[in-house]
C-alpha cells in the first residue's frame, strides 16, 4: 500500500520502507548526501541530507527517514539549506583536509587503500595495482623508478 505525502509542495507516493531521499530522487528533487556517495566510505548521521517535517518542525535525515501518510516535507527552503550548510560546516570543522584514513597511514606504500580496495571489489585488479604504484612513485620518487614498479 502506497504512502502519500507532500514533498516540496507536491503530492508524492512512497512504498513502505522507502526513504524520503529515495522518493525525492525518483521525483526529480535533488537532496545532497554523503552516505550514498560511491567515491567515499559510508557516513552515518552526517545530516547533509536534512529535510524538515513542516507539521512537527523537526529536522530529519532524509537518507534514513521514511515518510508517513499525510506528512509534509520541506526539502528546499532557505531554512533547510541553512541547516545543511551548518551540518557541512560542522563536519569540515573537524576535518581540515590534512588527515588520512588509518589504513592509508598504516600502509607501507601509503597507498590510497580505500580507492584500491574499491577497484578490487569491482574486479579491476590492474587498476588497483596502478593506484598503489602511483602512490608509491609519488611518495618515494627518488627511491622507486617506474621500471622497479613494473617488477613488483
Q: Can you tell me about this structure?
A:
The protein has 152 residues and is an alpha+beta fold. The protein is 38% helix and 13% strand. It has 6 helices and 5 strands; from the N terminus they run ββαβββααααα. Helix 4 runs antiparallel to helix 5 (125-139). The longest helix is centred in the middle third of the chain and has 16 residues, at 78-93.
Task: Please give a handful of descriptors for the protein shown.
about 150 residues, five-stranded mixed β-sheet, about 40% helix, elongated
Question: Can you give me a brief rundown of this structure?
Answer:
This protein has 152 residues and is an alpha+beta fold. It is built from 6 helices and 5 strands. A 5-stranded mixed beta sheet has the order 2-1-5-3-4, with helices on both faces.
Topology of helices and strands:
Elements: E1 3-7, E2 10-14, H1 20-26, E3 50-53, E4 59-61, E5 72-74, H2 78-93, H3 102-106, H4 113-121, H5 125-139, H6 146-150
Parallel strand pairs: 1-5
Antiparallel strand pairs: 1-2, 3-4, 3-5
Question: Largest sheet at a glance?
Answer: 5 strands, mixed
Helix content: 25-40%
What is the CA-based Rg, rounded? Answer: 21 Å
Low-confidence stretches: 140-146
For the biggest β-sheet, the strand order reads 2-1-5-3-4
Number of beta-strand segments: 5
Q: What is the number of helical segments per DSSP (H or I, 4+ residues)? A: 6
Secondary-structure-derived class: alpha+beta
> Shape from CA axes?
elongated
- Please write the string of helix (H) and strand (E) elements: EEHEEEHHHHH
Output mean pLDDT: 81
Distance between the termini: 58 Å
Strand content: 5-15%
Oligomer: single chain
Amino acid at each position: 500500500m502506497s504512502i502519500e505525502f507532500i514533498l516540496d509542495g507536491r503530492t508524492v507516493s512512497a512504498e513502505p520502507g522507502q526513504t524520503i531521499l529515495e522518493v525525492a530522487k525518483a521525483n526529480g528533487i535533488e537532496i545532497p548526501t554523503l552516505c550514498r556517495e560511491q567515491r567515499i566510505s559510508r557516513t552515518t548521521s552526517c545530516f547533509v541530507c536534512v529535510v524538515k517535517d513542516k507539521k512537527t518542525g523537526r529536522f530529519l535525515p532524509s537518507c534514513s527517514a521514511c515518510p508517513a501518510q499525510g506528512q509534509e516535507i520541506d526539502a528546499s527552503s532557505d531554512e533547510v539549506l541553512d541547516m545543511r550548510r551548518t551540518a557541512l560546516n560542522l563536519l569540515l570543522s573537524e576535518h581540515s583536509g590534512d588527515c588520512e584514513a588509518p589504513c592509508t597511514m598504516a600502509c607501507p606504500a601509503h597507498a590510497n587503500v580505500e580507492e584500491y580496495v574499491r577497484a578490487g571489489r569491482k574486479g579491476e585488479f590492474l587498476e588497483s595495482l596502478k593506484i598503489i604504484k602511483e602512490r608509491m612513485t609519488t611518495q618515494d620518487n627518488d627511491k622507486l623508478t617506474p621500471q622497479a614498479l613494473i617488477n613488483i
